[in-house]
UniProtKB/TrEMBL annotation:
Organismal lineage: Bacteria, Pseudomonadati, Pseudomonadota, Gammaproteobacteria, Alteromonadales
Any one GO MF annotation of this record: hydrolase activity
Alphabetical UniProt keywords: Hydrolase
Superkingdom as given in the UniProt entry: Bacteria
Protein name stated in the entry: TIGR01459 family HAD-type hydrolase
InterPro entries: HAD-like_sf, HAD-SF_hydro_IIA, HAD-SF_hydro_IIA_hyp3, HAD_sf
Gene3D superfamilies attached to this UniProt entry: HAD superfamily/HAD-like
A matching Pfam family: Hydrolase_6
């Protein structure tokens, strides 16, 4: 356990930060997080935000600004949505066709235009594009998933997170939960973002490389597993999505064993 970034500041040149659960939970930024970002800036560290968000990194600029995190406190943002858009642009998903059955948040269909797709009804879709959970929970999607599985449709997910913290401290269902249910049915799922190795390679290129990087996050399944897979150090934030399962150091060890991951360090909040 460390007390703050001051304990490890001289070890790393690059800090790869999760967004939700580390910097904010969809509302105002945590005061400790703003102080931590300011601390990193004062030590001339490279700071990049790596987020499992289906939105683009450029969209995140506004969200971060609204939360109280100014643009000068980080180099850039890279999202799982960027990762997915790159794969569509590169032709990786050409075999899926263009007719997408789209699961979204808040009636936002901008990704359809971004990826050159056509939104379709279920009977005419050639694949599923999973970017949101506006129906409330996974059960509301099971009929569509059963139909897709019967017709051998593949699923592309822009945000692999199963849950995310809300400003009220509760957990909300994320697109990864739908994708996970489809994969358990036997359906083919194309994952993006953390913990996929490709997004860490994209991140390294984005910041111009690093000598010694550390990833900071609250998800053992995504942030810490991703860092382990990318062979970089990691800092586990215990106040995030796993907080109810944590009571002492032994509970952290048991939880990490459950997810088959090993963080380099852990701390209660992201702080200097």
């Amino acid at each position: 356990m460390i007390n703050g970034l001051k304990d490890i500041i001289d070890t790393f040149d690059t800090f790869i930060l999760d967004q939700w659960g580390v910097l904010h939970n969809g509302g105002n930024a945590f005061p400790e997080a703003i102080a931590a970002l300011t601390f990193l800036k004062s030590h001339n560290k490279k700071v990049v935000i790596l987020s499992n968000s289906g939105k683009t990194g450029s969209f995140s600029y506004g969200r971060l600004e609204d939360s109280g995190i100014t643009r000068d406190l980080y180099l850039d943002v890279l999202t799982s949505g960027d990762h997915m858009r790159q794969n569509f642009a590169s032709g990786k998903f050409q075999h899926l066709g263009k007719q997408a059955l789209h699961f979204t948040w808040d009636n936002d269909h901008s990704v359809i235009d971004d990826c050159g797709l056509t939104e379709s009804i279920r009977d005419e879709a050639s694949f599923i594009l999973c970017c949101g959970v506006d129906r409330g929970d996974v059960d509301a999607y099971m009929d569509d998933l059963a139909f897709a599985y019967q017709h051998n449709l593949e699923l592309v997910v822009s945000n692999p997170d199963l849950v995310a913290m809300t400003p009220e401290g509760t957990l909300k269902t994320c697109p990864g939960a739908i994708a996970n249910a489809y994969q358990k049915m036997g359906g083919t799922v194309h994952w993006h973002g953390k913990p996929q190795k490709e997004i860490y390679a994209m991140c390294k290129e984005l910041v111009g490389g690093w000598d010694n990087a550390i990833a900071v996050g609250d998800s053992l399944e995504h942030d810490i597993a991703g860092a382990n897979g990318a062979n970089i150090s990691s800092l586990f934030i215990t106040s995030g999505i796993h907080t109810k399962a944590i009571s002492n150091e032994k509970s952290i060890v048991n939880l990490c064993d459950e997810f088959s991951v090993k963080p380099s360090f852990y701390i209660d909040w992201f702080k200097a």
